[in-house]
Structure formats: structure tokens, C-alpha cells
Model the fold of this input.
Amino acid sequence: MTSSGKPSVLVTGGAGYIGSHAVLALRDAGWPVAVIDNLTTGFRFAIPEGVPLYEGDIADADLLARIFAEQQTGAIMHFAGSIVVPESVADPLKYYHNNTAKSRALIAAAVAAGVPHFIFSSTAATYGIPDVAADSPGVSEDTPQRPINPYGWSKLMTEQMLADVAAAHPMNYGVLRYFNVAGADPQARSGQSTAGATHLIKVAIEAALALRESVSVFGTDYATPDGTGVRDYIHVSDLAAAHVLTLEALMAEPARSLTMNCGYGLGFSVREVLDAVDRVTNRKIDRRIEGRRAGDPDSLISDPARLKQTLGWQPQHAQLDTIVAHALAWERKLADLRAG
Done:
């Protein structure tokens, strides 16, 4: 325990998109934070001044032992990993190495050091193409998990590891299964910075700012109101807030672990997202209609009831135009950062 009365939190991948927002949320709430990141997809500028950065690999047991000792680590938020679904199909061993084997090494180091709380960045991809009834509010945590790509499997394997480790050692965990994360810090302190990112809202904003020629729309014949795929977009800062609440819940009940979906329970189609970007940027994006991508479900919407009931979590940035506006503000700041 640190002088603040709160344990220090080690954020893996804390220089990346979601991890950097978790660092901000923790700092804003008064938690001591340290970051480990190998900076392959993360950025030093994403880490606030005063937050210790350990540049290195999450599978480096000696480095982890040193961090845990120096920082008096009491909890881990694990965001480090690879996230591009098509790449996972083309290079599955990379995903089983980065996402599964390295997570195993991190968990082992945490057990050896007696770190009692572990929060894991998982994904709705563990559900694959979920079989959800038409009158269902969305995908629940009890929906069968049937991944259809190595990315989803690599995350599901880590979920299973955590469950088995928690049964054998004094550690509890939170598994948060993300739907489509979007937006940026409302104060423009961080955002999605990775070149070549595949997130629809970022891609669309880049097109609106003439950083891309067009946006591809993959399929217009889905069983949705306008024929394009429908997804549940969650603002990255609302997601980060859920992580802080999860940590508080794990500390309050050390014998309980939590698994929760992170989304709004609202769906927006590809066309609706592009219309919102047109509206917010006051520009018309060139849309290129292409065929469906293999494995894309018609609709993927979260049922966030457990998250709300368990943590009292309430989203603060659920309006689509707000998500787009924050992402746009970050993209403009990012251009200045790169120019400088």
C-alpha cells in the first residue's frame, strides 16, 4: 500500500489507446500508477508526466519482479497485446504468443509476487458470431463463447487461465469484454494514435481530414435496417471508468471475481457512423462499397446490465456525435504532435 492509502496499479500497454485512458482515469481518481510498455504500438507522449514508464516486455520476469518491488504493486490492469483480427488469421502464432503466452508469464509473475488483483482487457470476439434471440437486449456474459478467429481464442484462453489461477491462488480478477471502443479523452489528453488503425470512427475521421481517400463499407446486404453492419460503440473514457470501478469492487470483495461486457446496449450501423462523421466534420466522406468480410455478424450489441448493476456504472459520453467529436479533436491534436 502506498502513502495515498491506495495500492499502486501497474498498467500494461499503458502507452497505447485504451491503456493510456485507463492511466488517466486512475490518476484522476487518485491512484498511484506505473506503466510497462514495449512501445511497439504505444507512444511516450500518451503517458502523463510523473507516471513511471518501464520500457520492456510483459514476459520479462526479472523486470516485472523489479517493478512490483519498486512500485509496491497491488493490482494489474492488462491491456498489452495484439488486436487486429485479420492479422490474427494470417499470423496466428503471433497472437498466441503475444496475447496468450505472454499473459501467462505476466500472471505467473503476479502470483509469485503476491499481487492480489488482476483486470484483463478481453473482447466480444470471444463470442464469435453469437446466437442471440431477436427479443434479447443483446449479448450477455452467459452467451456461449465460440471464437471464430485466433484473436478471439487468444483472449478466451487468457480468461480461462485467470479463472484457474484464481481458484488456486489468492488472486481475484476482472474480465472486461469490450465491444467497439471509440472516441478519445474529452480533454484531448489521449486518443487513438496508431497509424493504419482499423477502427471505423478513426478511419472515417481520417478520411474527412483528407488523410485517406475513402472509407470502405464492407457489405450492404445485412439483415439490418439499412443493410450495413450494426455495432455497439463505447466511448473509451467510459470504458476506462469501468476499469476503475472494477478495481474498487475487486478490492472490496477479495474472494469475488467479475466478468462483464462493456458496451452501451445501443447499436449504430456503418452508415449511421459515417453520417455522424459527415455531420460533425461538416464534410462528405467518399464511401467505397465492397463485399462482406468473412465472419462479420449482422449485428453485435452488448447487454451491459451486469456492468451497471454490479458497479453502478453509468456512461457519460454515450451520444454518437459526442464520441465522434472527441475523436476528431484528438485527431487534430495528433496532427500537431506529429508536426512538432
